[in-house]
Write a structure and sequence with these properties.
This protein has 144 residues and is an alpha+beta fold. It has helices at residues 3-22, 26-31, 51-64; strands at residues 33-40, 48-49, 68-81, 84-96, 102-116, 119-128, 131-132, 137-138.
């Protein structure tokens, strides 16, 4: 297995993931994950386990931003060795609400990948925002 080739395949998966999200294609998003996915998403609950719960979570996310949804990743770092890999990156999430207001913020993300039957899939992802411990509020306005 060529490490650089596998890292490039994971980068392509990340690009596909972003495109599927922006297109609001929940079945396509879910196809990129393992059946036993576990996520620590920025939007509650504390953890999400399994593809059925993950599908319900993605549908809820799409309903929260019905007008438009934008994701942009930068500073992507990928490593792969054998059948496992990981990536870390910064992601800007933006959504337009039905009243026309737009919400946007930066998140920090880490994802774990597993190669199954020759295909890389997301086995775990974790997206979060730093917070101010004095106010207990997320700091989504920070800039990279």
């Amino acid at each position: 297995m060529n490490t650089k080739t596998e890292e490039a395949r994971i980068r392509a998966l990340i690009d596909d993931w972003v495109d599927a999200i922006v297109r609001r294609d929940v079945p396509r998003i879910l196809a990129l994950y393992t059946a036993d996915v576990e996520s620590f998403d920025a939007i509650g609950p504390l953890r999400i386990r399994g593809s059925e719960a993950w599908a319900a979570h993605w549908r809820m996310c799409m309903e929260q931003c019905p007008a438009s949804l934008q994701f942009r990743v930068q500073d992507v770092h990928v490593e792969a060795d054998g059948n496992v890999g990981f990536a870390r990156f910064l992601m800007q999430c933006s959504g337009t609400m039905p009243d026309g207001t737009t919400h946007s913020g930066w998140m920090r993300c880490t994802a774990g990948y597993r190669c199954e039957d020759g295909q890389w899939r997301i086995a775990h992802d974790h997206c979060s925002a730093p917070f101010d411990p004095e106010t207990n509020k997320a700091l989504v306005d920070l800039q990279p």
